[in-house]
Design brief:
The protein has 150 residues and is mainly β. 3% of the residues lie in helices and 59% in strands. It has a single domain, classed as Porin. It has one helix and seven strands, in the order ββαβββββ. A hairpin with a 4-residue loop joins β1 and β2.
């Protein structure tokens, strides 16, 4: 269980499509043990985090309504706070909606699936022991638009 904090700069190149640069800080608490002991030693990790930088292509279904559903997907780079963990590339895909309570102010909510690719630096005989990482995040946010397609 954890929380996410981040920011997004979006450029709408048509009424339905936008390109976004996204930064997120994803923090959680967990305990790794068992099979991962050979990689990290005996450890109880508290307050781990990832910093995620990614680009996203967004598609908006109804840009003229107050309620505007969207889908998004794109590649990213994940920086892990644990000193023994690799920083890796991954992908993000999600869906959500914007609710415009004023012409340029909106509340955003939705969910994103993250998949971080396997480490390429692991010895080949152990590569199957280092799993890829996948997780799902729910989000709620506030957005200000400097302009909106009419």
């Amino acid at each position: 269980m954890g929380f996410t904090f981040g920011g997004q700069i979006m450029y709408g190149f048509s009424p339905k499509f936008a390109f976004a640069l996204v930064w997120d800080w994803i923090q959680w608490k967990y305990d790794i043990s068992g099979d991962t002991e050979m990689w990290f030693g005996e450890t109880d990790i508290d307050d781990e985090y990832l910093m995620k930088f990614n680009t996203t292509l967004m598609y908006f279904f109804d840009t003229k309504a107050r309620f505007c559903p969207f889908v998004e997907a794109g590649p990213g780079f994940y920086i892990n706070s644990h000193e023994e963990a690799d920083n890796r590339f991954g992908i993000t895909a999600g869906a959500g909606a914007l609710y415009f309570f004023q012409p340029v102010y909106a509340i955003e909510f939705g969910g994103r699936f993250h998949h971080i690719f396997d480490s390429e630096d692991a010895p080949s005989e152990f590569a199957e022991d280092i799993p890829s990482t996948s997780f799902f995040e729910l989000f709620v946010g506030f957005k200000y638009f400097f302009g909106r397609w009419e």
